[in-house]
Amino acid sequence: MDAERVVELVYWRDVKTTGVVFGAALLLLLSLSVCSIVSVCSYIGLALLSVTICFRIYKGILQAIQKSDEGHPFKLYLDQEVALSADLVHKYSDGILEKLNWTIKELRRLFLVEDLVDSVKFAILMWILTYVGALFNGLTLLILGLVGAFSCPIIYEKHQAQIDHYLALVTNQVKDIVEK
User: Which stretches are transmembrane (predicted)?
Assistant: First the structure.
């Protein structure tokens, strides 16, 4: 997905598509909070398989009643190539490798205290994250992040003037406190 399509999703430009994506992602995360990932994957597979088997049987019965010879209902999808190209795999793996190498170098720099100020900031962040981790588990944070990602942009777009006004007040208060 490109950035433009993501922006269209989170700003609810196409309500139907955004609703399906948001609902499916939220349902998946809520399911994972109740069941294990193995159970959730199994249930999703069973649901998908049930739908496709029922559709296949339905089309077979319809063909028998109408005495038509339409063939397999999923023939179009069965004939499509689903293999990943080597170029596509190399493109994404190179990007992931680049980000992974950057992360390793940055962590090495922080943990081996190349810059004392940055390492102290990182230590403070880790300390704050211990409290966040005590309050929430990772799945709860993902659910909150998903809801925030789909609700904050549209709320900001609709109430931008009021939010900017109060944000400016808070920013001025913080500047005053820092100056003191």
Answer: 20-49, 135-156
